[in-house]
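Lab meeting, item 3. Inverse folding demo.
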């Protein structure tokens, strides 16, 4: 960066050349390089994080696809350079733009590996479940025979090869909304889903059950959609602190605790004395679920802006949020995060 200070504004292929390939050309001789670079979650690379102007969901999706394709082109150029000593492993969901790149452009220099039954996801999931259930047994003093091997095998079968299913299920079972035996029974009671038409059907059923277990499922879906499907509550394209988001969205004191009750398996909720960390999802697949009305059904939300707009005006009218603020929070709320809603353009 010291040698090429302007590279931050260059195209990614130029950045790769200046910041990676040139140093490799100069320092490769006599060096013992590692053999592999692993890039995980390429599909989650979002160009929206690096722009100052809010975009519609369609514009953001197109920008993300363009950004992902540009990254792939830069990686392809690097692998074709004789001075580049690495193999690259890219782990990603098969989004259309990514699929198209490997099929139409890079097919001659890449090898596709589908992590399906051939690579034993069931065995990995069973190992994960055994470890997690062991922790639950120790925490609650449950017998080592709980749950039965048949129950664990059924969970693996219901996952249909999707590790995220057992991960979400275990976070739900480990939650504090009810005894773990009762929560496991709820998961087991979900009807076995046909994955022929929708490979995400088992995960969708689990997400629907967890959201519908909250005191007000639609309100929870509205909050989650506003926070994670839009950029309204962002500053410089980063989510605003959870504490501010709570102040902004609550129409009465304590409403955040009510809305998010039972959703700890889906959302990471910072403690109330943390004034910097935002709400975050444990997995992006929840956003995908909420964005598709064919998957989330009655939980699909179309009025994110209306919710944002009504809360914005109500806070102006009341000269503050519904929840009383400490002196420190007043400063943070009005001079920092609240002001950014003007400067970010979210209100436009």
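The presenter then showed the designed sequence:
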């Amino acid at each position: 960066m010291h040698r090429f200070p302007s590279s931050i504004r260059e195209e990614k292929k130029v950045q790769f050349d200046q910041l990676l390939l040139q140093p490799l050309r100069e320092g490769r001789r006599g060096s013992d390089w590692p053999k592999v670079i692993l890039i995980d979650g390429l599909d989650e690379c979002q160009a929206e994080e690096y722009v100052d102007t809010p975009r519609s969901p369609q514009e953001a999706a197109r920008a993300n696809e363009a950004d992902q394709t540009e990254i792939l082109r830069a990686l392809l150029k690097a692998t074709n350079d004789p001075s580049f000593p690495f193999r690259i492993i890219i782990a990603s969901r098969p989004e259309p733009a990514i699929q198209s790149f490997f099929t139409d452009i890079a097919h001659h220099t890449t090898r596709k590996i589908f992590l399906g039954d051939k690579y034993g996801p069931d065995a990995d999931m069973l190992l994960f479940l055994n470890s997690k259930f062991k922790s639950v047994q120790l925490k609650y003093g449950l017998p080592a025979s709980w749950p039965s091997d048949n129950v664990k095998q059924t969970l693996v079968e219901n996952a249909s090869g999707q590790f995220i299913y057992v991960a979400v299920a275990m976070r739900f079972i480990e939650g504090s909304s009810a005894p773990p035996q009762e929560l496991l029974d709820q998961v087991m009671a979900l009807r076995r889903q046909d994955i022929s038409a929708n490979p995400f059907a088992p995960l969708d059923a689990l997400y629907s059950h967890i959201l519908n277990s909250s005191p007000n499922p639609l309100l929870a879906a509205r909050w989650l959609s506003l926070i994670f499907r839009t950029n309204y509550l962002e500053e410089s394209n980063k989510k605003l602190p959870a504490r501010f988001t709570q102040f902004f969205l609550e129409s009465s004191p304590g409403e955040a605790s009510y809305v998010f009750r039972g959703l700890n398996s889906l959302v990471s909720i910072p403690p109330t004395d943390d004034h910097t960390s935002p709400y975050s999802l444990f997995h992006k697949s929840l956003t995908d679920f909420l964005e598709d009305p064919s998957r989330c059904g009655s939980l699909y939300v179309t009025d994110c802006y209306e919710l944002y707009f009504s809360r914005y005006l109500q806070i102006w009218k009341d000269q503050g949020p519904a929840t009383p603020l400490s002196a420190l929070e007043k400063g943070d709320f009005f001079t920092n995060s609240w002001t950014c809603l003007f400067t970010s353009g979210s209100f436009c």
